[in-house]
Amino acid sequence: RQDLRERFLLFTGRLERNKGAHLLPEIMKKSGILIPLVIVGEGGLRKELEHAFKSKSIDARFTGYLEYPEMLSVLRLSEFVLFPSVWSEPLGRVLIEASMLGKPSITFDYPGGHHDIIEHEHSGLMANSIDDYARNVARLANDSTLRNTLGHNARKIYESRFSPEVVIPKLLHFYS
Length: 176
Hints:
The protein is 45% helix and 14% strand. The protein is of the alpha/beta class.
């Protein structure tokens, strides 16, 4: 496996268009950030992405699929998460996992469940375009205070909305 002791950004998910994986090379190039992007996952776009990152001279490291505990270990070490999904996902599990570990995320501002997890400028950042997304990547990569604040707030949202202590009683009440 790759050496993950240096700073890196993270995308974890299926390498498919609906997950926005095809946008990652352009986002990273426009961000101007030289921090590596670690990509955890498999999918139909892997070869295309490998070629796009290489042709743009962007340091992207593909791990392939990782089992859940190993994926969480990589997530824990990352600076923040890129979640460029291009559809209105009802619930972005990766966003909850990032919040659980106190990591901020960047998403597109589409309607959907990620608004229940990410609050713009409070627990993460939302973008309205690829250029806006790239600016947010640069902003978050270059501002450790912002990363820490957003990550801290993301953890609080996780604790108040998604932790087992909150979810299990709600489910038990629902089923009773």
